Amino acid sequence: xxxxxxxxxxxxxxxxxxxxxxxxxxxxxxxxxxxxxxxxxxxxxxxxxxxxxxxxxxxxxxxxxxxxxxxxxxxxxxxxxxxxxxxxxxxxxxxxxxxxxxxxxxxxxxxxxxxxxxxxxxxxxxxxxxxxxxxxxxxxxxxxxxxxxxxxxxxxxxxxxxxxxxxxxxxxxxxxxxxxxxxxxxxxxxxxxxxxxxx
Length: 199
Known about the structure:
Elements: H1 4-17, E1 40-44, E2 53-56, H2 58-64, H3 82-95, E3 99-105, E4 113-124, E5 127-138, E6 154-160, E7 193-194, E8 197-198
Antiparallel strand pairs: 1-2, 1-5, 3-4, 3-6, 4-5, 7-8
């Protein structure tokens, strides 16, 4: 799958890095991605606690029917897939490489739902072992969105985008060769503020 949300976020991130392996977290301006902000999230690179969400958009919360902030990213996945997802996040930081995860959720009594998760490394003072920018997208919002949680999701495939080599599925990197032309709005950063300090 190559959903519009994933394509836009990748294109924005790719434009921001401007030849670097990854942009700095302070480069992110939420006004530039306001149309998909509700589908985005930021993870803390804390493998001991399962890469907890620092912040998550409203549609991402609604998809899993829970407040994701502070929750382990690994808990969104079925137990059999959590080690693979953990390895992907670690590789993302170690190699400074974006990944695309395709998954399926089957809420009890409902049709299956295809989910596309984008994971993009962010630097903090030069280190990529700090934050991960991401998005969670579905092809069409299900009628039960906000009423029934989608998780845990079953992992279908993982793909390191810059290498062009899929692990289980074919396709091309979303946003490859695209230039981001979104607005350059200034204002509050995606990572928020707490006690006068950016988080």
